[in-house]
Amino acid sequence: MRVEAVDVRYSYGPNLPDTLKGISLDVPSGSLYGIIGPNGSGKSTLLRVIGGVARPCHGAVFYDGRNISELSPREAARQVAAVASGEPVIFPFTVEEIVMMGRAPYLRPLQSESAEDITHVAQAMDRTGVTHLASRRIMELSTGERQRVLIARALAQQPKVLLLDEPTAHLDVNYQVGIMELATSLAHDSGITTIAVLHDLNLAGRYCDRLAMIQDGQVVAEGCPDEVLTEANLLDVYGVRAVVARRPELDRPAVFVISGSSDGDGKG
């Protein structure tokens, strides 16, 4: 599913300045699209607008040409699924119960799960590698295992669009790579348009098909990783001096930060 954001503006209040200042994006169907930028630049807010959780005060978001504001909550939940950053785990549900929650858009009130629902849950757990954890309590799992469970819950929704907010935060390297390889597979093999907010520039450069670099609520660079992850952009947007080399085995850019900017303004 193609996702378009057209001149999107968003503010958290009528008397507050815009957090998003006229952002336009065009995300190809079945791609892994990364949103990067300094803290406070509007990345997570943009993801919430793309997912229909926050409504822009100007502009619109389209799924295959249809304005998402026209979708009912149930219909929207069948189109897009999201995994939030640092989602709290409060109740001791089992992994299988957590993943089954993803079937809510397909169930009527008080309706029991059908054989089809159980099948989709089993497939989602298998795809994310958490089947062996099905009977475990979510609170007993490591951070990396929980993240895979939450992605499984999202997949149980059968979404056409998957939104991931900092999916590799607080994970060790092995889990970071595993999550990004899973996201790549979901996009390229299953055709789920996947949009991820990322802080790790090397993961973004290695795995994403395209990147949007956000600064102060605006897109300052957009394109393939080579076009976005440049030394000039990193200095201007992040305020760091870096060397951008090339990974010959992957044909992808690699970022090596040397120091902060010489004027010490600490941009970002």
What is the level 1 CATH name of the largest domain? Answer: Alpha Beta
- Overall CATH architecture of the largest domain: 3-Layer(aba) Sandwich
Task: Write down the overall geometry.
Answer: globular
Would you tell me which CATH topology of the largest domain applies?
Answer: Rossmann fold
For the record, the count of structural domains works out to 2
Sheet with most strands: 6 strands, mixed
Q: Which regions are unreliable across 5 or more consecutive residues at pLDDT < 50? A: 264-268
Number of strands: 12
Class derived from helix and strand content: alpha/beta
Q: Tell me the CATH superfamily of the largest domain.
A: P-loop containing nucleotide triphosphate hydrolases
Give the overall pLDDT as a whole number: 94
Please list the strands of the largest sheet in the order they lie side by side. Answer: 6-7-8-3-9-10
Order of helices and strands: EEEHEEHEHHHEHEHEEHHEE
Task: Please give the share of residues in helix.
Answer: 25-40%
